[in-house]
Design goal:
The protein is an alpha/beta fold and 170 residues long. 30% of the residues lie in helices and 21% in strands. The protein is built from five helices and nine strands; from the N terminus they run βββαβββαβαβααβ. Strand 1 and strand 2 form a beta hairpin. Helix 3 packs parallel to helix 5.
């Protein structure tokens, strides 16, 4: 199998599950790991999810007009504490590094989550600043240079450095 490294993280293969509905829990990854998947990125975790966003609507996609499709996966079905209390341990017990995706929309909440996960041994972070369905609704953070600058400076200064930090602009 082709081994891969990102920074100091070592992966037994380049296959990593991306953040999404199937990474709400470690279950799908733990099955995929048996078939060569090396790691996963959690669903983007938020410290505070409004009640109306805690249920994922079905169907998950909405088409508006002829050239716009909105991804309606707008929240998490489980709170971030599920990853704190059991998810990180389950992935680590399986011998895999774990990349935690954190929402970069609310910088203080992102920092709070980073501090919590630094304390339990996070391997890496993906800081999500560009959900396709929320850009036009909540401001295109991936093009807001002031927000990006503040976010990156804050999270770099806020992590203990125990984890690699990956900033992904989707």
């Amino acid at each position: 199998m082709l081994k891969t490294s990102v920074g100091s993280l070592q992966f037994p293969s380049p296959l990593i599950l991306a953040s999404g509905y199937i990474t709400e829990t470690p279950d799908f990854f733990l099955e995929a790991q048996r078939h060569g998947c090396a790691s996963m990125v959690t669903r983007s975790l938020k410290e505070h999810v409004p009640p109306e966003r805690q249920r994922i609507p079905v169907p998950r996609y909405a088409v508006r007009g002829t050239n716009v499709m909105l991804n309606a996966e707008w929240g998490n079905e489980r709170p971030w504490t599920t990853w704190r209390d059991e998810g990180v341990k389950r992935v680590h017990d399986a011998g895999a590094p774990l990349i935690l995706s954190l929402s970069g929309r609310d910088i203080q909440s992102c920092l709070s989550l980073m501090r919590t996960f630094d304390d339990i041994g996070a391997d890496a972070y993906e800081i999500n600043v560009s959900c396709s369905h929320s850009g036009s609704l909540h401001g295109d953070l991936n093009t807001n240079l002031d927000h990006l600058r503040t976010l990156v400076q804050s999270v770099r200064a806020g992590t203990k450095g125990l984890a690699q930090m990956l900033v992904i602009i989707l």
